Amino acid sequence: MTQKKPATIAVRTGIETDSQFHAVVPPIYLSTNYSFPSFGDVPKYDYTRSGNPNRGMLELALSELESGSGAVVTNCGTSALNLWVSAFIGPNDLIVAPNDCYGGTYRLFNTRAQKGDFNVLFIDQSDQQALESALAKKPKLVLLETPSNPLVRVVDIEETCKKAHAVDALVAVDNTFMTPIYQKPIELGADFVIHSTTKYINGHSDVIGGVIVTKTKEHAEELAWWGNCIGATGTPFDSYMTLRGIRTLGARMRIHEESSQAILAFLSKQELVGTIYHPSLPEHPGHEVAKKQQSGFGSMLSFEFNGSMEKLKEFVGALTLFSLAESLGGVESLICHPASMTHRAMGEEALKEAGIAQSLLRLSVGLEDSEDLIEDLTNAFNKVQETV
Ligand SMILES: *Cc1c(COP(=O)(O)O)cnc(C)c1O
User: Which residues form a coiled coil (predicted)?
Assistant: First the structure.
């Protein structure tokens, strides 16, 4: 049988697997412990930190969606990243990460490196020279985040994996922005895929969660051991909710994308909009690579607001259908000012180096009707222009 398409895997995983009552949708098992059938007879699940049926089903879905051999579901995306470094890196080892990665990832790696847990090098991974000189230092781990946050920079996964593997580094791709609907890093050579399932995977802004999917079975076993050891694993309730969210992943990603395209076309005609960052734009530096490795462009976009900080604040305040909030990938549209919100922990200098300007605004385009979203943006731009 041919491998099913992601949307089908998302809908069908675990359906009709209940042998007791034949429930079509798999039930939730909240029990913290499972009895041993007899003395010394270890059951499949014994204690919920180390494993439980709901987490197992979600791991199966995510592993199949990402073409992996196994997965470990964690209690958040950050703990998935922390689990990854905890399992594979020691005090003298180096990790290479993008300088415009998710703010919390930057804080995690930077703080742990300062404590002496490992070394970290943050670079612009789309800069080939910076990448080559970082790889010459023989890192143990390389993290890619493509498209990155918030500038949606694109890195060539296949090429970078080849170069990293040549120096024996293991590569993980944070695939939170694309999801397996639009990008399959393991098929492009990555050893791991990491998600904040908090975002598109769950998709309803009501669960915090994460996952590491592995290319090899051995890495999955190693990470499962470490996940249990450091207590990074996800709960049954969160796993149940996330699998419920995943059911509609294919359909959601399609509408997210359609609406973003409409909004991009609108933004490109606005006087108050400067540079727009989105991989679908032909002038975006990563456009060609995105076309090669992604089957969609996604619905995260950023733009420079062409006006004073006062006007920017007024614009954001005038919006009614874009909530001013962190996070992304939910059904509701969001607007974020990275420099003062998601990325403030980076500090002024690192922000500047990563090219994240004070005038940058990031949109997570939700599933409201795109005509309503555009009308809302129109009203907000008009309001700011009236007071010029
Ligand atoms: C949100 C996010 C994370 C962190 O995930 P949490 O679930 O918030 O811990 C990591 N990477 C990216 C790209 C994210 O957007």
Answer: none
